[in-house]
Write a structure and sequence with these properties.
The chain is α+β, with helices and mostly antiparallel strands. Helices cover 29% and strands 25% of the residues. It folds into 2 domains: 254 residues, Beta-lactamase (3-Layer(aba) Sandwich); 239 residues, D-Ala-D-Ala carboxypeptidase C, peptidase S13 (D-tyrosyl-trna(Tyr) Deacylase, Chain: A).
C-alpha cells in the first residue's frame, strides 16, 4: 500500500487538505453513495452482495446480502494464495528434475529411460520473472527445456536408448476439479492440473489467410506434436464471413479440429489451447530440445501418472517418500512462492492456483489429490474464523461452478492477510487499479486509479471484485463485491461494480 499512500500525498498536495476536507464534509455518506449506484435500474437486474469493512477499527461501513452465498469466480484465488503463503511460506521453491536408473557407457549412450520429474513448479516456462505487466514471456518457449538439455549433454549423454518419460506422479492424476465445464478444458485457462507443467500447458495456433478458396495457413508454437491438428478452414474473399473460425475436439483421441472461414484481408487470429496431458507435453518439449543439442532419443515420449484408483485413500497418505530416486542429470529451480502468487493473482492464472493447492495438500496430508487439497483449504479457512455455511469450495482457481462464497467470508480472509506477517507479499500480488494485471485498463480515469488493490472474477453471469481500497484520509478498507445472475452485458455490470469500488475512495463524512 506504499504506492497508494504516495498517491494520496500527491493528491492532498495538489488540492490542499482543507479543500479536500470541505469536500468530504459535504459529500454523501458511503452508504448513500453505494445505495444510489445499486438503486439504478440496471443494477436491479443482478443479485448483489457487498461488504465493506474498516481495517483499523473493524467497523462494518456497508453491507448488502453479505451473508448470502455467491458464485465467486476467480476471487477464490484470494483464498488459495492466502493458504499457500500461510502453509508453505513466501520463500518456498519447487524443483524439476531429470533422472535416470540407467547407466551411461563409454560412448555416451544411456542404457535406459530418462525421466523428467515434475516438482510442482507452475513457472517451468519462458515466463519473464519477476512479473512484468505487458511482458509475460520471453521469445523462445523452449528456453527452460533447452537449459536442461544442455546439462544432460554436458553430463556426457549423447544418446538415450530408452523412452523419455514425463513423470507427474508427485500429484494424483485428477486433471479437472469437480464443477469445471467440459468446454473450458480445451482452452488455455482450463488446463489439466499436473505436477509437471511446461509453458503453462499452452499450445498457440496462429491462423492466417491462405489462397482464396483454400485453407488458412496455420502455425503452431511451440512446434510440437501435442495435438493432431485437422485444418478444415477456408479462406474467403472480402472482409466478412458466414462462419467464424472455431475449434473443437476431434473424433479421434488427441485430434484438434479448427474449422470455419477467415477473410483474405484478415490480419490473422491466434488461439491458445490446453494440452490434454501436461506431462506428455513436457516430455515432447525436452525430446525436441535434446535433439536440437545433438542428443538422440531412440524411444518415445511418454507420461507417467499416479492414478487415483490405485490408492487406498485420496485424503491422506502416511508412507510415501517424496525423494526422487535415480541418478540426477539436471535440474531446474523455481522462483520463490512470493513471485509465484504474484503471477496467480495479477493475471488470474487458474492452473497455477490449482497446483499450489495440490502442493499444500501434499505437504499437509502426504498426497497431492483434489480431495486432500479441498480439505486443506477448508481447514485453513476454519482456523481463521470462517463459518462452514459461509463458503463451499471445490477448487483453488474459481473455475468450478460448484463454488459458493459469502462476502463476509471473503472479507474475513482479507482481514486475516492484512494482519499477517505475509501482508506485503500478499498485497504485492494483487492487481493495481489502472496499472497492471487484470485491472490495468480499469479505473484509469477515476480517482480510484492506484488506490485499489483487488482480485477480479468473471464467468457467465458472474462478476466479482474483492480486495483493498485506500480512502481519504489514509483509511484502508477491505471490500467484497459480487454480482450474480445478471440479465445484461458483462460490461454494464462491471461498470456498476467498479462504481461501487470507486465510491470507497471518494472523500465523504465517514
Amino acid at each position: 500500500m506504499v504506492a497508494l499512500r504516495a498517491g494520496i500525498l500527491v493528491l492532498l498536495a495538489s488540492t490542499g487538505c482543507s479543500v479536500f476536507a470541505q469536500v468530504a464534509a459535504s459529500a454523501p455518506s458511503l452508504a448513500q453513495r453505494i445505495d444510489e449506484i445499486l438503486g439504478r435500474p440496471a443494477a436491479q437486474r443482478s443479485h448483489w452482495g457487498v461488504l465493506v469493512r474498516d481495517l483499523e477499527t473493524g467497523a462494518t461501513l456497508y453491507e448488502r446480502n453479505a451473508d448470502k452465498l455467491f458464485v465467486p469466480a476467480s476471487t477464490v484465488k484470494l483464498f488459495s494464495t492466502a493458504l499457500a503463503l500461510n502453509r508453505l511460506g513466501a520463500d518456498y521453491t519447487f524443483t524439476t528434475l531429470v533422472v535416470t536408473d540407467g547407466a551411461v557407457d563409454e560412448e555416451g549412450s544411456l542404457q535406459g529411460d530418462l525421466r523428467l520429474v515434475g516438482g510442482g513448479d507452475p513457472n517451468f516456462s519462458a515466463r519473464v520473472m519477476p512479473y512484468r505487466n505487458k511482458e509475460e514471456f520471453g521469445p523462445d518457449p523452449l528456453a527452460p527445456v533447452r537449459r536442461l538439455a544442455r546439462s544432460i549433454r554436458d553430463a556426457g549423454v549423447q544418446r538415450i536408448s530408452g523412452n523419455l518419460i514425463g513423470d507427474d506422479s508427485r500429484y494424483v492424476w485428477q486433471p479437472y476439479p469437480v464443477g469445471w465445464s467440459h468446454a473450458d478444458t480445451l482452452q488455455a485457462y482450463g488446463s489439466a492440473v499436473s505436477a509437471l507443467v511446461f509453458n503453462d500447458n499452452v499450445v498457440e495456433v496462429q491462423a492466417r489467410p491462405g489462397v482464396v478458396g483454400g485453407p488458412a495457413r496455420l502455425r503452431i508454437r511451440p512446434s510440437l506434436p501435442v495435438f493432431d491438428l485437422s485444418n478444415r478452414t477456408t479462406t474467403t474473399s472480402g472482409r466478412y464471413v458466414v462462419r467464424r473460425l472455431a475449434a473443437r475436439r476431434g473424433e479421434s483421441p488427441g485430434e484438434l479440429v479448427l474449422a470455419g472461414q477467415i477473410p483474405s484481408r484478415s490480419r490473422g487470429r491466434t488461439f491458445q489451447f490446453a494440452g490434454d496431458d501436461p506431462a506428455l507435453y513436457a516430455a515432447l518439449a525436452l525430446r525436441q530440445a535434446l535433439n536440437d543439442v545433438g542428443v538422440k532419443v531412440d524411444g518415445e515420449a511418454e507420461a507417467h501418472h499416479l492414478l487415483p484408483d490405485r490408492l487406498p485413500s485420496l485424503r491422506s497418505r502416511t508412507k510415501r517418500s517424496l525423494r526422487v530416486t535415480g541418478q540426477r542429470l539436471a535440474e531446474a529451480n523455481s522462483v520463490q512462492l512470493g513471485e509465484v502468487i504474484r503471477v496467480v493473482n495479477k493475471v488470474s492464472q487458474n492452473l497455477h492456483a490449482e497446483m499450489l493447492l495440490r502442493e499444500v495438500a501434499l505437504q499437509e496430508s502426504g498426497i497431492g489429490s483434489q480431495e486432500a487439497a479441498v480439505t486443506s483449504l477448508r481447514r485453513f479457512l476454519a482456523e481463521i474464523g470462517l463459518q462452514t455455511g459461509e463458503f463451499y469450495l471445490r477448487d483453488g482457481s474459481g473455475l468450478s461452478r460448484h463454488n459458493l462464497v459469502a462476502p463476509t467470508a471473503t472479507v474475513r480472509v482479507l482481514e486475516f492477510m492484512w494482519n499477517s506477517l505475509d501482508r506485503e507479499t500478499y498485497l504485492d500480488s494483487l492487481p493495481v487499479a489502472g496499472f497492471d494485471g487484470t485491472l490495468d485498463w480499469r479505473f484509469k480515469r477515476t480517482i480510484a486509479r492506484g488506490r485499489i488493490l483487488a482480485k477480479t472474477g468473471s464467468m457467465s453471469s458472474v462478476l466479482a471484485l474483492s480486495g483493498y481500497a485506500e480512502a481519504y484520509p489514509g483509511k484502508t478498507y477491505a471490500f467484497s463485491i459480487y454480482a450474480n445472475n445478471f440479465g445484461m452485458s458483462s460490461s454494464s455490470t462491471r461498470h456498476l461494480a467498479d462504481s461501487v469500488a470507486a465510491a470507497l475512495v471518494v472523500p465523504g463524512p465517514e
